[in-house]
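Sequence and structure are kept together here, with a separate record for every protein. An example record follows, reproduced without changes.
>
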Amino acid sequence: MPLTLLRRFPGHTYPRQFWLMFYGMLISTIGSSMIWPFLMIYASERLEKPLTVVASLMTISATMGLISSFIAGPIVDRFGRKGVMIFSLFANSLGYLLLSQATSFPAFAAVMALQGAVNPLFRVGGDAMMADLVPPEHRVDAYSLLRMSNNLGIAIGPAIGGFIAASSYNAAFYCAAAGLAFYGLLLTFLAHETLPARAALSGDETAQAVRERFGGYGRVFRDRPYISFIAAMLFTTICVAVMWVLLSVYVKTNYGISERLYGFIPMTNALMVVILQIPVTAVTKRFPPLNAMLVGAFLYAMGVGSIALGSGFWGFWGSIIVITFGELILAPTSSTYAANRAPADMRGRYMSIYGLTWGISTGIGPVFGGFLNDTFGPHTIWLGAGSIGMLAVFLFVWLSMRSKQVAPQPIR
């Protein structure tokens, strides 16, 4: 895999640790994706409560994630990336083991709170480590490679996990725990810390970092173009969170599509990313990032909204095709945009705020969708989510027009 990819990507100098992250993510994602697409089905059947109540588990997880994200940014910038990532992987592994034994709402809520608290630690640390390892001009390609690794795992995991979960959810939970723990061991013994040395920073950056210690988020919030970008991403990620959290329950409850068959829907998404991410990135990086993200957000909104029109597997499968093209455009472009705006001593905090979009959307989106389902009917989940996605499109249009009037922020 690496030799082929290196021949197709510019800058054949990705360091060894980048490939450690590439393969570690693949292994851990295969394990965890055996269970996460079916988690709401599992919780719904165990708890036998309304969808709004079950979806509130994601709100609990997301609330803890928001708190953790703010804490993670300064810690990652101050003390390093590696230890935070390792702790997150092992704690998340423990969470899957505990979920396999949960039988009541309080038990589910406690474990979801644990996982919500530790998930952002890995994401913030990993994004910062990736930016440390790869120079700005190659980051969009590097993020695309890591997305390919992640989605290759997702292509394999749900297809296998659907069969395993249909027979034994416990076995699927154990596989998820094992994959995360194995990646934690790889980082423990093979990775090195990448936190930039203070001496390597400019005098102004070092003085500012010392004064701010564990704060510093004021500098991020004063970056108005970045915060406007975060707001646009938030609308899109709410749309996406509704889809990935509730779709499995929606198709099984309303159309009788089993875990075995549903597993091929996230598998299709993942295989498309593995096969198409390189050529799509090669095209999209030729355009201004905000313009590319606008197109990606539009495809997301249209794809999620179109789920309301589906009535069988192939209809939902077609919606996923549209959604995935939006993902192929938006995901690596937005990660690169966030990383490139961050000063070296602020990468953890910038990526932390970027990660908050997923935490907030996971807290809001599923409960919003559950409310629409329980109050107005199942189809309104997708009409509501698609409408929120269109708000992101309008905001990206505004940002793109505004960016033409303002000098672009230099890449760091």
User: Anything to note?
Assistant: Confidence is low (pLDDT under 50) at residues 1-12, 199-203, 407-412.
